[in-house]
Design goal:
By secondary structure, the protein is mainly alpha-helical. It has one domain: Orthogonal Bundle (Multidrug-efflux Transporter Regulator, Chain: A, Domain 2). It contains five helices and three strands, in the order αβααββαα. The protein has a three-stranded antiparallel β-sheet. The longest helix is centred in the C-terminal third of the chain and has 15 residues.
Length: 92
């Protein structure tokens, strides 16, 4: 019954459904990424995280964060921790 197991795995959502909007504020993005808001501000000051400002407030697109996380996992696979300079190169 290998097909049944595959169907079961495909039907299970990975991660919690947090009910977050497509464009998130700092608090929502921190919850989505499971880090503190202070950590997000640090990443922003180091230009490690894709975000934009709307007025004087930082905003994060969920789809952009998803792509960023995917890129981080692909580039960091098997390499351990990386320095800030290589993380900036990933961001472009």
């Amino acid at each position: 019954m290998p097909g049944r197991g595959r169907a079961l795995l495909e039907s299970v959502k990975v991660g919690p459904d947090l009910g977050l909007p497509e464009v998130m504020n700092i608090r929502q993005a921190a919850q989505y990424l499971a880090v503190s808001p202070d950590t997000l501000y640090k990443y922003l000051s180091d230009a490690k995280l894709p975000a934009f400002k709307l007025g004087n407030r930082w905003r994060f697109k969920k789809t952009t964060l998803d792509r960023w996380m995917e890129a981080q996992s692909e580039h960091g696979a098997g390499k351990g921790r990386r320095g800030a300079s290589s993380a900036r190169r990933v961001m472009g």
